[in-house]
Amino acid sequence: MRTAETTxxxxxxxxxxxxxxGEWTPTGENGLREVRAPYDxxxxxxxxxxxxxxxxxxxxSAVNALNRDDFARVDRIRVLEQTSAALNDRRDHFARAxxxxxxxxxxTAKVExxxxxxxxxxxxxxxxxxxxxxxxxxxxxxxxxxTAFTLRVPVGVVAAISPFNFPLNLVAHKIAPALAAxxxxxxxxxxxxxVSALLLAELLNGLGVPAGWLNVVTGxxxxxxxxxxxxxxxxxxxxxxxxxxxxxxxxxxxxxKVRLELGSNSPLIVDDPADWSRAAAKAxxxxxxxxxxxxxxxxxxxxxxxxxxDFIEALVRRVENLVTGDPLAGxxxxxxxxxxxxxxxxxxxxxxxxxxxxxxxAGGDVIDGVLRPTVIEGAPPTTRLQREEVFGPxxxxxxxxxxxxxLALANDTRYGLQAGVYTSxxxxxxxxxxxxxxxxxxxxxxxxxxxxxxxxGGVKDxxxxxxxxxxAIEEMTERRLVSLQP
Length: 486
What we know:
Residues 32-481 form the Aldehyde dehydrogenase domain. By secondary structure, this protein is α/β, with parallel strands linked by helices.
């Protein structure tokens, strides 16, 4: 990390505090804490350091909101639509906040802000369509003379825990569906990147969300997070983050609906005679956007031996042209990782892979606190770069001879979020869709692609849910049967 700005005393953003019961709380149970930019240490904001008592008040306000039932569907739709429009008007403001608190390059942060606009718009559209169904009771003798239908009712209070890497859009993916479904929310944003979430809450609160329907408590996972997921009045937990933390949360709340969107080490298969040049071009952004800090960042690339030389040459050339540095600079492609500790960890994994026989083709060193985009060929399958989620600007390249070998290599992981396959053979494409054990298989695309309306989620250690407003809303509601007999 650069340190030239660490003595800055004036924060770049002013946030009103935590939102509890419709009121802004300027300080938390544990006072205030500083949010500093990962790139240069400048002060981004001062935010409340919440604790269990703050969580208790927030959950109580959410329960009261649910019982009041004073946020009609038509009003929820209005707020969601107005939020989408307001975000669109303020995209540059939100993008700057994202860039500063997470070190996401500004041009990438602008894409995230635009996606959040869509996420709220999709949630509003789904809120209009949310409905039950008729049940043909008279199809059996026991149902003769009865008329029945189902209602979609809110599951209850939603606890939402969001990660640092998409501090606006992944918050939107939790708040917007919950409000659309009629569920009050208590949000705990990532402690490293709470600013975007607080600015969004300020926007929503100003658009007329009734007291208690949206609450935001900032603080750490062991204080705020644990108190939230174990609270008896929380019915539903939505968490995005690491596999280890996610499954631990599920273990702490065995009687709740716990929905997890977790990590991965996403594979990309480039098959002969696939369009390897197009694959190489897309793999650069897929592997190094936001310094690889995405659950679906392309990490493991398997390329057919017949096109490997050309593919690797094109990939390395493009990677070496990536611009590193200040996330606020308009031409920066890759900036700092979220912390110096993470930079050290990823560098250690790189060194381990090279010592085990991997060949460094690009990057591998740290300049001005930024780990340069790294490409390693032939890292052994036992190394952490191949087995675990690196969450850093690193891709591995492995050559293969047969398509079945590539499928087996891609499947050799405890994760299963998304996989990408480049092939011009329809039969191979269909085989990949059937054989690859992932929540999504993207043909002639990188695994890092996500449309905000798609059913997004994984299997195995990558989670147990499908996000996207339509699918999240379905999970945040329950079917209630209503049967009428004259």
